[in-house]
Structure formats: C-alpha cells, structure tokens
Amino acid sequence: MSALIKGMATVAAIVAAAGAGLWAGQTGVVKLPLLGSMVATEPSPEKATGPVIYYRDPSGKPFYAPTPKPTSDGQPYVAVYASEDVSFDKAKSKTVSKSSERKVKFYRNPMGLPDTSPTPKKDAMGMDYIPVYEDEGDGSSIKVSLGKIQRTGVETVTVGKHPITRTIKAPGVVQLDERRIVVVSPRFDGYVETVGPVTTGTHVKKGDVLAKVFGQDVLNEAARLLIEQNTDGTRDGEAFAPSGLKGSSGVAVGATRRLQNLGVPEAFMQQVKRERRVPDTFEYRSPIDGVILERNWSDGQGFKAGDVGFRIADHSQVWMMADVAEGDIASIKIGQKVMITTRAYPGRTFGGTVTVVYPHLVKETRTVKVRVALPNPDLALLPDMYGEVEIATGADQNVIAVPASAIIHNGNRQVVLLDLGEGRFEPREIKAGRRGDGFVEVSSGVAEGDRIVVNGNFLIDAESNLQAALKGFTAPVTTDPNQ
After folding, report:
1. pLDDT in tens, 288-297
2. CA proximity to 193, closest of 299, 79, 349
3. At how many degrees (to 10) do helices 266-275 and 254-261 cross?
4. How many CA atoms lie within 13 A of 265 on its CB side?
5. Beta-carbon contacts of residue 85 (< 8 Å; ≥ 6 apart)
6. C-alpha angle with apex 185: 181 to 190, nearest 5 degrees?
7. Which superfamily does CATH assign the domain made up of 168-176+315-394 to?
8. What residues does each domain of the chain span?
9. pLDDT tens digit string along 7-23?
C-alpha cells in the first residue's frame, strides 16, 4: 500500500512539473538559457512539496487566484504549494542521526482527544499514538500559515475586565400615574349654574374655573359664618362664637369647619368675610395642572353629594407597565434604569426607573408586571401607548470576561484559542460564569492581557482536527523492512 502511495505521489509531481514548465514556456515568463545560468550560478533553495493549492501576487500584495493569471503589468502569479501554506509539523531533521537524538516527551491521541500516554500505544481503532518531542513544546498548539490566517479573516482581542450586564427586553403599555389623578366631586346636593370652557381632553392649569354651582347647605353655613363674624365677640379681627359654639380657644370655628367639611373653597369663605354678604353660588376650580379625563356636568344639571363632576389627570409623569418573562424576573430589582422606545417617536428614547415589581404572575402569558416611572414633561407619552422596554441588569463590578464569540463548545468543555504569535494557537479550556450582552465571565483558563481569537476560531479548530487526522496517518510505525 505504501509503495502505491509513493508511486502516485511521484506521478503527480512529474505531471505538476511538466505542466508548470509548459505554462511558463507558453507565457514567456521563463527562458531556458537564463534559467540554466541561474541554476549554475546560484544555490537552489529548498524545493516546495505537495500540489499547487493557489497562486499569489508576486509583489506580496494580498491578492490570490485559484488558477494561473498575470498581474495588471503582465507579471505571472506565483504558485504556492501545500508545504508553503500550512505547516503541520516543525521542520523535520534532515538526517536520521539528528532525528534519533530527539527525545519523546509523551504520546498523544491520534484523533485529537485529550488523552496522552508516556509510552507508545494504540487507540481503540488500532491507530498508533503520535509522539510529541521536547522541541515541539506540549504538542497542543496549532500552526497555521499567515496567508491562511489573512484569507480566513482571523481576528484576536486582548482579554480584559468588563462589567457583566444583561439587557432584558419586554413589551410595555403607558398608563397614568394613579397618584396624579384627582376627582372634583361635591359633598352636598345642588345644581350646576354654568360650566367653564372645558371639555374632555382639555389641558387646564391649576386655578382654572371648572364650574359655578349652587348648594343650599353651603348658603346656610355661609350665613352662620357671617353671623358669627358680626357678633359682639369680635375682637381684634377675630370672631368669638356665642355660647355653645366656642372651641377650646374661644374662636368661632363652627361654621368655618362645617364649610371646609363640605369642600367649599377657602376663597369663598374669605369672600363672605370680606364682603359681609353670602353669594348665591361659588366656583369650583382645577386643583392641579392636567388633562380633563371626564366632564359629567352640564349647565343647569342637578347633582347629589358624591357625584363625580370632573376627573383630571396630571400627565407630567406616567407609568410604563412592562410584561417581563417569568425566567427574567429574578434579575429585576427596584431602582434599575430603564430605556424605552415607542413606535410614535422613532429614534427617541425615554429614561425611567423600576419602582414596583408586582407580586403575582399572569398565568395566561407567564409574565410579571413591572412598573416603570417615566418623566413626561412634554406630554409626549400618552395613555395606552405601546413601547419596547430595555432593563439593564447585572453588577457594575468589572470582572475578567471574554467575548461570547471566542468560546468553542467542545462537548462538555468550553475552549478558547490563545494566540501565541507567528501563526501558532493553543486551545485553552476555560471555566465560564455569568453571561450578558456579548461577554462571558471567565474564572479560570485565561488571564488579563492574553490574546484570544474571536473571529475565525471555528476554522482554526477545524484545522487542528485536520492536523491531528493527518498526523495519525503519517505517524511513524514499526514495519517489516523486507515488506
């Protein structure tokens, strides 16, 4: 079998040489007389072996071609042989005596498995373990030519410290802040004389007139207030109540307190005291800046105590109710910063803070409601508006971490490729920890300052498997010299 392989290799070399000579003669690149003089005067370099795998630009530019071709100025591309592109082993000794002096360090599995032996042995398939010599290091590194590294786009980065954060994304809906909703509701029976120039959706300022109303109970108490003020108990501007109406201080507070209990504005009571008469009506004014959510009164309408006349909401701060998946809820904490985007305002982000994580699960969607407080000074966010919520979770402490793209999952192990320089890489097993936003925490295996492969690592991993397979076929074995 070995004789057949050697014969095929010899025939392939002759055909390749003949083809190269024919191509060179046709293109006029090489002239035989000149070639003869060069061979006679200059020492011949070590010949490349193996088939031609591609052609490169003669000036060293990063241009390659699968077939012979000339450059723009007519120079032919240079053929690159297999031995020039990939080096599976260190340069072999030229003499048998030197190779016999090399000392075997150990023997490794021919298929690249993490198994070594101090003595020669065979694996389960009958393949000989490959010797690793002392001058080859530990035998675990991978050698790839610089040309192949450039073509495959291998990229490396330096291991450093990064915060491990993870961004949780969830849909959300804008809602009003319950604490910023007020209701204008009378505490007495009466009727509406006129309604101010407000409707549902109108933005009002604090103090704007909402309605002018009449209430008999209010008029009665206002008359008592005026009587108490005009009694002989007046002294230095303070009204003293008649017997039976005095408080602990003696000041007339009976009518005033009852008017306050009826929800009558302070301005109305001051008007009664100042003008010394009782007006027929008084005005309800907006207690806050906000938007009218409900207007239930009309001119001339009667009402009962407790009826809602107006409902007003302050939109300067709203809530975003996010639906966070059950698996992410353990990472949500009060006070975490939130970024929100909406379809209504592409490219604009709104910042908020997590204020409440609701203590129950929505069983239909397997989500938990998370309340986010959002400042809304320009009233851009409207109730029931949809948004995309991004909650930044994780610690701010920096730890040694590597990009997630650098990790190769090899069965039960996680491996990164350490860049040793000059096209040599070493697989390094790591112990991974927390993950977040493209980085993985590493507790062992690499150190800060190491360079690792982040792009093209799977190609290098495949190259290492190929090298292990070829070394398994080319490993020295004991054969019968007479065979």
Report:
1. 999 999 999 9
2. 299
3. 140
4. 18
5. 53, 54, 145, 147, 148
6. 165
7. Efflux pump adaptor protein, beta barrel domain (2.40.30.170)
8. 2-85, 168-176+315-394, 184-312
9. 444 434 443 444 444 34
